[in-house]
Design goal:
single chain, Rossmann fold, 8-stranded mixed β-sheet, 6 helices
Length: about 200
């Protein structure tokens, strides 16, 4: 299983979801690794360290870092794209979780974009969606973009941490009517599989 975790925007819970997912598969006794191709705001932000600590996995690393907490294109004149792709492709773990920086269309530099990583590496994309007003639009736009780029879409992970009203809890149902069987995970403090919110994984 080779996954790429992206989000419908910044600050939607990608890293926490990645950590929950890594913990789940690690708890099954599976060989799990986590890779963050690029981390800005480093070392204040260190997603790989958090995922490793939270999940208990031993293999978690960041490939390239920059100190300013800004888009990668503002830090790299030329992002080392081929090196990142090689490092990801060289990972032979049973479960590989690769987490992007920001959303799927974030520019890595002014010639490469984030979506090119899962495309080049053959990773299935999970989009983390905050369960709040506006998320249906964000989900549909992300799905349409991935479809246009012919990138493998695995599904959405709905972050219930953002649910504030009763109408928010209906967002997943709307998304599923528009894109059937697309919501594969729910999470807040725990991880839930598919449409079953009654028992945590």
């Amino acid at each position: 299983m080779r996954l790429f975790i992206s989000g419908s925007g910044t600050g939607v819970g990608k890293t926490f979801f990645s950590a929950l997912l890594a913990k789940h598969f690690h708890g099954q006794g599976r060989d799990v690794s986590y890779i963050k191709p690029v981390q800005t705001g480093y070392p204040a932000d260190d997603d790989a360290a958090f995922v490793k600590s939270f999940s208990g996995i031993s293999k978690a690393k960041t490939l390239f870092t920059a100190e300013p907490p800004v888009a990668p294109c503002l830090c790299f004149d030329k992002f080392p794209f081929e090196e990142a792709v090689s490092a990801i492709n060289d990972d032979s773990s049973e479960v590989l979780i690769v987490e992007g920086a920001g959303g799927i269309a974030v520019p890595l530099d002014y010639t490469r974009m984030t979506w090119e990583i899962p495309k080049q590496c053959g990773l299935e994309v999970i989009i983390v969606v905050p369960d709040r007003l506006g998320c249906v639009n964000e989900a549909v736009l992300n799905y349409s973009f991935l479809t246009e780029k012919a990138i493998s879409f695995k599904g959405f992970a709905m972050n219930r941490h953002f649910s504030e009203t009763e109408s928010d809890t209906k967002n997943a149902g709307i998304i599923e009517k528009l894109i059937p069987a697309s919501v594969i995970y729910y999470f807040s403090e725990s991880l839930y599989s598919k449409s079953d919110e009654t028992s945590a994984l």
